[in-house]
Each structure stands twice: as C-alpha cells, then as structure tokens.
Amino acid sequence: MQFITLLDYFLLPLYLVIIYSIAIFFRNKYYPIGHPWRTYFMTGLTLKIVGSILIGMIYQYYYGGGDTEGYFYHAFIINKSFSESFNKWLNLILHIPAWYDGDYSAYISRMIWYSTGAEYTVSSIAAFLGIFTMTTYLPIAALFAALSYTGIWALFRTFAIKYPEYTRYVAWCCLFIPSTIMWGSGLFKDTICMGALGWLTYSTFRMLISRKITPINLLVFVLMFWLIVKIKIYILLAFLPALVLWILFTYSHNIANTFARTLVKAVVIVGCFGGFVFVTQKFAADLGGYSLENVAATSYYTNKNIAINSGDEGSTYDLGVKDPSLSTMFKKFPLAVNVTLYRPYLWETRKAIQFISAIETTLFLWVTLKIIFSVGLLQIRRTIVSDPTIQFCLIFTIIFAFAVGLSSGNFGTLSRYRIPCLPFFALALMLIYYKNKPTSSNIFSINS
Q1: Using an 8 Å Cβ cutoff, are 410 and 317 in contact?
Q2: Using CA of residue 109, residue 115, residue 118, residue 120, what is the dihedral sign?
Q3: Contacts of 10 (CB under 8 A, 6+ apart)
Q4: Rg (CA), the chain
Q5: Is 226 exposed, middle or buried (0-12, 13-18, 19+ CB in 10 A)?
Q6: Got the DSSP string for 428-447?
Q7: What predicted TM-score, i.e. pTM, was given to this entire model?
Q8: Is the peptide bond before 344 cis (omega within 30 degrees of 0)?
Q9: Crossing angle for the helix pair 137-162 and 189-204, to the nearest 10 degrees
Q10: 3-state class (DSSP) for residue 410
C-alpha cells in the first residue's frame, strides 16, 4: 500500500505551520527570553517531528510497509464511514459495534485489528486526527509526534523542577535520546505510550511529591493510566511498583526513628507484593497473557514468535530460555537486563539502522563503566540509597528491561520495545554521576 502520497507532501507544510504557531505561542507565554528551559522546547519538538517524518519514509520507501501502515490503513477504513454517517464513524471510533454487526460489515470485515484492543485504539486515535488532515499519513504522524511531545516535555519538567541545577543534563536524558526520537515519534503504539508515560510521571509527581492534588492532575493521571492499559499494559506492571516505592522512600525520610522507618518500608513492600499478586489473580481474565500465571508463558512464546517471524535471522538473539516457567525466566534476569540496556554490541549488527542502535547502547555501556570506575561501587550505592528519585528510575528501568529483554528475541523489535525505560535509565546514570562530580564536569569528556 502506498500510504505516503503527493497529497501528504502538499499538506504537511500547512500542518507544520499550525503546530509551530501553537508551539511558539506556548513557548513565548511560559518560557520567555532568559528562561532556562526556553532553548530546549523548540529543539525537542523539531526532533520529534523530524523523527516522525523520517521513520514514516523509512517504512514506506525502505521496508515497503509495516505496522505503521496497518494503523493508517485502519484509520482510513474508519474514516470512510464518515461520508456515510457521522454516527457510524463515531461508533467505529469508540469500538461500539460487535464484529458480526451486519450494519458495519462493509468496514469491520476489512479491518483485521478490529478485535485487538491495542492496535485498534491506536488506529482510532489516528482516524480521529485524520478527520482534520484529510486522512493523510505524514500530517497524522506529525500530530502524533507533537501530542506525544507534550508528555515528553512534562517528563522533562518533572525532573527539571526536581533538579534545577542539572537542567541541561535532564534535557539530554528526556528529549534527545536518538531511539526515543526515532521510534517514539511516528504512527506507533510506542509514540502514544511515551507521551502518556511522561504525563503519568508528571501528574504523580505533582500530586504525591509536590502535594498539588488538583482535578486537572487527577484527570491527567486517570486518562494516561487508562491509555497505557489499553495499549501496553505491561509498561504499568513495571511502572507501578517503582511508583509506589518512589512515594514510600520519599515520605519515609520524614520518619526519624530508624527502626520505625525500616519497619514501615518492609510492611509497605510486603503489602505491595501481596496486593500485586492478589490483583493479578483477581483480574487474570482481564490481564490475559499478563496475569501472574501467564506472564512467563507470554514472554516465552512472544520471544519465539518474534524470532521465527522476524524474517531477519541476523537480528535475532537467544537468551537460552528453554521452557515457559517463572523460575527459568528469573534465572535469565541478568542476561535479559543486559540485552535491553547494552545490546546489540557493535559486532552483532548487520544493518545500518541496527548499527545506529548499537552506537547508542555502546554509549550507555561506556557511561555505565565510566561511572563505576570514577565514582566507585560503594559511593554509587550511597547515592542511590540517599535519593528516592534515582531508586524510582532504576527500579522501573530494571523491571522493564527484564520483561522486554525476555520477550523480544530480535534486536530490531527490541530497539522499539525498550524506549520507555531509556530516559529513566539515562536520568539515573546522570544523577549518580553529577551528584558526585562538580556540575561543570562533563560525563562525555574523556578527561572528566
């Protein structure tokens, strides 16, 4: 399917003018000249939009299709119904008709993702935006990038407020990681989830850390929570434990008595684990493959399916998982975390795009080793223990990296799946380093 046409190139400049006009107005209103965040706002937005356009072109002209084409195709079919009836269009957007409803068979029969919650949710969002863009791919992708950027910017604001002395480094971690720009900007599930995760972090921080519980913050939290549940629930399975512990470790510092503080932490942690087990068992049917009893099998078979169906043997990897049991999975914990954060290695690459990913993971590995040798393991431990935010970032990163590393099986897929944890991992590394170095020190300098 030729999902990028001449009409895309004709309409794209118009929508870019609209996006940038709104962005410039917002920047000038909230970040006037001299504001420390001003220089990052437009640069981050531009990179997101460029990323959305480039990845669309790569899928059209290099790969010749892919899941982004599938989302657009479904959006196109949904919007075909608009000419027949607004009610039909709205019902399809909201996924109201049953798949066997004869009144909608002309549309539903052409959509293989109609019964899939995640893919169809993305397609519905694309269809809604398509009403304002004549259902053209590149303008929709640019709008996806712009809307996602609001969440990425919210993530930046969260940590820039928390650590104003490290604003420049927070910007690099949140706004300028190549993988998040490329794979988190186009017409993908990942784009929506990255934006939603940013807003979820921001609203949680505002309500529970800054104690600003407002209807707006509560609404944002609920909406973003729902959106991630609909599209990639496993992100929440990694995020929520880290979030609860972030809150716990933040407020436990107010307990002066060491024994009482330790007891409270232990009770809450055990309670959270028990609650997690209860919820996953109680709602096993709703969680499906991500229930406690099925999560190991889901990871195992997802890994095997990706490895078999990727069509690219040079990009596959095998952690040696022989059976879908929890005990076997946990034995591969270090390998799974390592493959998510530090692989592919440079010598494992077979394609240009894969080589770019390998350069990024090599930089993460180099920065990690630099921190270990320059700061020292004992001081790293002290820094982590003393800062609940670093703990939050690392707990989410490690849980998520473990899950994604086990279930991917292919470096190409992994480069997309891992992007939600990369800003948090980068933030943790940055904070550990600069809390033990003068702010003038530069981690990217060989002599620092």
Answers
A1: yes
A2: positive
A3: none
A4: 22
A5: exposed
A6: HHHHHHHTTS-TT--TT-TT
A7: 0.89
A8: yes
A9: 30
A10: strand
Q: Which of 336, 323, 92 is nearest to 238 (CA)?
A: 336
Query: What average pLDDT does the chain have?
Result: 85
Task: Summarize pLDDT for 213-245 with one digit per residue, the tens.
Answer: 889 999 999 999 999 989 988 898 889 888 888
* CA pair distance 166, 169, nearest whole angstrom: 5
Helix, strand, coil percentages in the chain from 3-state DSSP, rounded to 5: 75, 0, 25
Taking 80 as the threshold, does the pLDDT of residue 97 lie above it? Answer: yes
Check residue 63 and give its pLDDT.
Answer: 84
Q: Two tokens at 153?
A: 């910017």
The share of the chain scoring above pLDDT 90, in percent, equals 58
Query: Residue 410's beta-bridge partner residues?
Result: 316
Largest distance between two CA atoms of the chain: 70
Reduced 3-state DSSP string for 296-361: HHHHHHHHHHHHHHCCCHHHECCCCCCCCCHHHHHHCHHHHHHHHHHCCCHHHCCCHHHHHHHHHH
Alpha-carbon span 258 to 237, nearest angstrom:
30
236: CB partners within 8 A, 6+ apart:
225, 228, 229
Burial of 30 from C-beta contacts in 10 A (0-12 / 13-18 / 19+): exposed
Structure tokens at 102: 């004869």
Rounded alpha-carbon distances, angstroms, from residue 374 to 380, 384, 414, 446, 448: 10, 16, 30, 11, 9
| Residues 32-75: tens digit of each pLDDT | 999 999 999 999 999 999 999 999 999 999 888 889 999 999 99
Looking up tokens 């393991």 gives: 377
Strand, coil or helix: 190? helix
pLDDT of residue 158: 95
Is the torsion defined by CA of 24, 26, 29, 30 positive or negative?
A: negative
Residue 248: pLDDT above 50?
Answer: yes
CA-to-CA distance for 213 and 207, rounded, in angstroms?
A: 4
Count of alpha carbons within 13 Å of 239, Cβ hemisphere only? 21
Q: For residue 233, give the 3-state DSSP assignment.
A: helix
pLDDT at 308 over 80: no
Distance CA 448, CA 446 (A): 6
More confident residue, 443 or 331: 331
Q: How far apart are CA 273 and CA 196, in angstroms?
A: 25
Query: 10 Å Cβ neighbour count for 363?
Result: 15
